[in-house]
Amino acid sequence: MSEPNMPLLSDKTRSLLELASTPTIATLLFKHGFRNAYIQGVSALNPTDRKLVGLAFTLRYIMAREDTDQLSAFCEPDHPQRLAVETCPEGHVLVMDCREDASAASAGSILLTRLQVRGVAGCVTDGGIRDAEGACQLEMPIFTAKPSAPTNLTKHHAVDMNVPISCGGVPVYPGDIIVGDIDGVMVIPAHMAEQIAEEAEPMEEYETFVLEEVKRGVPIIGLYPATDPDSLERFEFWKAQRNQQ
Amino acid sequence: MSEPNMPLLSDKTRSLLELASTPTIATLLFKHGFRNAYIQGVSALNPTDRKLVGLAFTLRYIMAREDTDQLSAFCEPDHPQRLAVETCPEGHVLVMDCREDASAASAGSILLTRLQVRGVAGCVTDGGIRDAEGACQLEMPIFTAKPSAPTNLTKHHAVDMNVPISCGGVPVYPGDIIVGDIDGVMVIPAHMAEQIAEEAEPMEEYETFVLEEVKRGVPIIGLYPATDPDSLERFEFWKAQRNQQ
Amino acid sequence: MSEPNMPLLSDKTRSLLELASTPTIATLLFKHGFRNAYIQGVSALNPTDRKLVGLAFTLRYIMAREDTDQLSAFCEPDHPQRLAVETCPEGHVLVMDCREDASAASAGSILLTRLQVRGVAGCVTDGGIRDAEGACQLEMPIFTAKPSAPTNLTKHHAVDMNVPISCGGVPVYPGDIIVGDIDGVMVIPAHMAEQIAEEAEPMEEYETFVLEEVKRGVPIIGLYPATDPDSLERFEFWKAQRNQQ
Amino acid sequence: MSEPNMPLLSDKTRSLLELASTPTIATLLFKHGFRNAYIQGVSALNPTDRKLVGLAFTLRYIMAREDTDQLSAFCEPDHPQRLAVETCPEGHVLVMDCREDASAASAGSILLTRLQVRGVAGCVTDGGIRDAEGACQLEMPIFTAKPSAPTNLTKHHAVDMNVPISCGGVPVYPGDIIVGDIDGVMVIPAHMAEQIAEEAEPMEEYETFVLEEVKRGVPIIGLYPATDPDSLERFEFWKAQRNQQ
Amino acid sequence: MSEPNMPLLSDKTRSLLELASTPTIATLLFKHGFRNAYIQGVSALNPTDRKLVGLAFTLRYIMAREDTDQLSAFCEPDHPQRLAVETCPEGHVLVMDCREDASAASAGSILLTRLQVRGVAGCVTDGGIRDAEGACQLEMPIFTAKPSAPTNLTKHHAVDMNVPISCGGVPVYPGDIIVGDIDGVMVIPAHMAEQIAEEAEPMEEYETFVLEEVKRGVPIIGLYPATDPDSLERFEFWKAQRNQQ
Amino acid sequence: MSEPNMPLLSDKTRSLLELASTPTIATLLFKHGFRNAYIQGVSALNPTDRKLVGLAFTLRYIMAREDTDQLSAFCEPDHPQRLAVETCPEGHVLVMDCREDASAASAGSILLTRLQVRGVAGCVTDGGIRDAEGACQLEMPIFTAKPSAPTNLTKHHAVDMNVPISCGGVPVYPGDIIVGDIDGVMVIPAHMAEQIAEEAEPMEEYETFVLEEVKRGVPIIGLYPATDPDSLERFEFWKAQRNQQ
Question: Which of B31, B38, B221 sits opposite C149 (nearest CB)?
């Protein structure tokens, strides 16, 4: 989808999003009319330091069927799950639609390790992940409903990749921007990424200021949001002092 | 998918399936190893006399998004929902994947009427149906989770058609055979249809005999299933008498 | 369990319960400290005129397993489901514990017809019922979560009978009294049956009076409950008049 | 809330809404940015011919507690449930917040009859209704999750009335306009009622035309919505002819 | 609600409750007939050493609506959520009713920090909490369904404070006593607090003794509960020895 | 059930299973046709190093009832819960059927400590566990839905032991082999244990090899599964080298 000379996610946008928390992104998307951009029911599996930021590369599962979903299915060289693991571009995020069913896994530590080795930015699934012990040792951030031992063949039949999907109740189009942290995972529509990233920076800065104010005893009314002009004045002063350091 | 000279559902198979109840089909699929072929959570909406039998033609929805799913979306000439209604072949069944979310409709009486006019065999959705009053007057059988007033744009974004989907927890491939009655809807994998249809006939016949026996006071053990050879003898006699009439 | 000379449910108690609605029974059990005696999630399947009243005879299912739950299981002469159908005493109610899972049936019209022929009072299941068309023609009241085509072997392994079970979130002990009507099914602990039956009669009578009063325009405060002494006076007068007729 | 000389729901608006289906209202509210105005999980209990239209009068329940929710609670002259039944103004709709828990009733046929006698327009609850047999005989439309025998004291403690509530996942403010039919119940924010009512009329008219067109074989693309100018021309002609009759 | 000279929670009661585990409190409330006093679905968010004990101060949310719940809502000086954060008395617990919907947050680290600075004892919500990283650094105990990035405006409209609410399926009245630890959160009706606190002390002491006994190999029958008089004798001896230390 | 000279779980099988991960066991059971052997909804409570392996000893709960489930119930010397704790054989696993309801506990730290002292291998429950702090200090592995403060009497009435049960949606027969780790709990039908254990060893070995290969950059197609003969050659070489060490 992406051409070498025209990155869909500029370095600047990526950098800004790495500094933006998912609550900040949620609020900004809300401001622009997007009320349903938070992937419900998934959380961080592994305690990595890396922030999840990347373009969505999708894999779609439907319900498995007893005849097509035997172990031999994995032997087909174009099995969509295996293919997705080898195809998801570097810096992208593999997002899997498991119909919010975590009673079986959608991947395990071997496939996740392969993704990390290939430079994939991370993995998000509304199904389960197995081999959680191995998965927890990876640096690449993984978001899942929960650990789940059964093979994906039990419930999930990989059917196609890089099509629009739902994940955790949110529409995900290939190329959307995925951001994940301790509060969960947000999906930023591709055309909104730059704007959200730029609006996030001053918002994060003001919230840092607010938190310091609150810690020293300032009440929130008038401060958060800054309906009292005095709050903004103090904020400007705080920024000026900060920049001097 | 189907070529004119090679119907995927022969007249004979269709006729046999019109006489087979969904419990009989469920038991036969179970016998062949298919334990998950019953579309969960849907029931007949309209009190029609027609049995639902036909090849699956599928429509896939993902979660809607605020920017793409405005009323203007319906104005696009290739909106997949409208297109599916005009494309689903005569004698086929339109099966819709709404991710088991009936908080919004997937179709209303106008589209359903158009399907009936076009000779479509029926409609199955794990989402809602709106304009239930009008839908109840159609002859074409409709199976849905429940009536639901909101437009599909509220929750369901039609994304592509005639791809494999899940519906009510069951995988549905284009060309699978759909059979529906008061007990719900079964999905017969395309390659199993002829065999199931042929096995259904003697099974239905034996159950008719059993029900008569039970009504006149015969206990079920030895009779159902026919572990007592005497049951089979009486069955042969019953059949012989029946054929004389 | 019951001996011929010592019926656990006297004719008088049975008669009184046949006149008591399930809401009245629910309120009386509530008064005696039983807040959880209503079987959740089941409703009447067939439009019979018979009120469901009878002693509980239970059948317990656990989750099915692929090796033990093949069609051949029904060939065993002591398969607990078949045995229960042939053993449930006349006038009793077959109550089935399906773990509130109606994705498969717990019985179909053949077994239900056999129960009716044997004089069983009715059937309650928190699983599904199949062959709903045939079941709807029976006089014996049937309460189920919903019609469901799959054979019980898909999900339900009959394991033992006449043991204490849960059904729709309520404990049911063999010999408890089951009462069902349009509002659902109540389970009266065996030792409470006589008392509840006797208390129900005057309560039903007062509510009949109240409904007449309300229809002619009397406000409910002071009348229902009868905190205004005048309400009781009018009630006595109403009863006297009624008895003269 | 309402003053005698300034009806919140004009006769004209009421009349227009009585002719508008809930799907039409849902689409219009959607057009104005309201994506969540359909009360989920309730349906019509009684087969009345009356359309439900009226201003919301609310009753809020919290979870019951064993000490406060004894039968004696109903003896208090200001028990909020009893009070609401006697206070809900004529032509209004009693809307009850049961936290989407239908495991117990929120009202029974006596209270519902009293509401009807008092001229209340109808009743909507996301809890249960008991004495369904009596309730089904009322002319006043009743929308509920399902029949449920247990007294409200089992789960629902009436706590205050005419405050903003949630019902079936929708915010309901006193004075909002409630409209219900076979497809369910819509909540129109008070300030939107007139506009929605006026927009509904031409939309219903166009859909009547569309249905006639579809029945005579016209495809939906270009017709519904009317992206083909020819559709609008035919519509004008159809209206002209209709008015002549 | 509380007057300065008449604390609703005496120092003694508070001290006793700080030593009582929630299972002990649950058992004692059960003994007194309260079977539903455990807030379902919430757990401790932050690994603080402080035990949660305090009087309930409540905040009620209803479902959000698109017109009223825009970011500008927070600018109103009397927005109930902001007001609650500034009003909840020192030593009280802010308990929020989010209708058990954690798909959006009910508060974030800035508001929680303000609560801690104001001396509030803790926070309990059956919705989500955002900025979980910051929240985890607070000393004030926080109980929530889960981290959730979306702003409360997405789903939760703060409507009033210090009214009776439901939280996690439990009724919470302002002034009830809230106790939370690793096993979750109990709600003690205000009038029961002193009695429960006093009964908890000997029960905790006996369980400490029992655990020591069990660790040295004593079977539980006769010991727990103490149906064997010998158990009580050994307990008295153990207490005597303990007091000598 | 087991006789001294004929252990149902040989030392060899136990040793092999201690080295097998639950995903490996899940895949092997799947290969043999068992698609539903993973206990849904439970996870490890305590961070022990011990792998859970042992024969199932079962305890069945039904819904509690207000009259039978008072605190005095525990005083009965043959209360099934207490009896199970004293009866479950050394090296076995106590598996409890709580109908997947974790709103109350099924055991607490005292009973769990007693089980550990008695040499029981572990405990699995689809209900809650209370006194989680104490339970977390045990060496014996415990798998539960979640911590839950209420006493089991609130919801769970212990009714019999060592009968077939369902736990987390899986049938568990006394004597089945239970294996648990970070990915959850698998139930191996007794007659499959030896075969699964033997097949697990080479599978684990191959996956160890695969993970090393993946870490050094080998793609998964052809390697996992080993459809490329070269993969098996490298595997043989890897094993040979490994054995030399």
Answer: B38
